[in-house]
Structure prediction request, 311 residues.
Amino acid sequence: MKSIIIMLMSCLVAVTVSAQGIIRRPAATKPKPTATKPKPTVRKPQSRGSSAVRPKPAHPKKADPINSLAEPLRSHLKKLMADMVLVEGGTYMMGDPNGDWDNEYCIEVPHKVTLSSFYICKYEVTEALWTAVMGSNPSKYPSGDNYPVEQVNWYDCQDFVEKLSELTGRHFRLPTEAEWEYAARGGKRSRGYRYSGSYALDEIGWHVGNAHYYKREVGTKKPNELGLYDMTGNVCEWCQDKLDTEYYHHSPSINPQGPDRSTYKDNRCFRGGSFCDEEKYDELKVYTRNTGMPPEEKYGHLGLRLAMSVN
Prediction:
């Protein structure tokens, strides 16, 4: 019996030692993920179609100062703005096409002039417009709202365009002599007429033969190629320039502004002829110059037409 017990104990010890000798492998662990930088987002280029164009923010439209004016001045100035005609710049032969360069007394020698674009009014300044802006009608022969104003000197015209510019926020002025002739000839649309818009004087102008020494309503004759009325006849029109009879012999070819001094006194140019001029003389032709007029003098056949700078 004792031997059986000893045998069993030996077997138990062997099993225990055998169990303790077993090498256990460590449990498998999952590898930790490696930290990576996020990839930058690449935006695909948008197509250039209309859907891809972002609209520009709308800028508030600048208020037109004319809208803040009281009637009837506001209506007169709105009409004036509608009547301003854009004259596209270009190059033309200014002066008498038959002018003689060898004749020292010829004040209309032909010469090439290049002008930038500008605006000019399709009508002469009327009694109504002058009165609305200046508060009174200076005309020697007041005849009605739609008749050209006259009896204004060159200085009066400067006061008028200055006030008009303040009221409208635009740059109104008298045309230069070169601008006036270019517009009278029809600009780039010129057909080379002797008068402004025709070879037939009665079609386009009021002169002594049909006006009988009286001014007439503006815009009642045929316009020239640019749609301008009364560039020939009705009333003469002041220009910005001083008058030098030799100026055409040495004047700049690009945007001439007139001479620094006048031949006679301080005379200023005027153009176009009037209801006092006869057809048999040259005063009504588009290229005709004269000896000008002192800037302080005023006459019942002398008025103005407005020009305006593009910028």
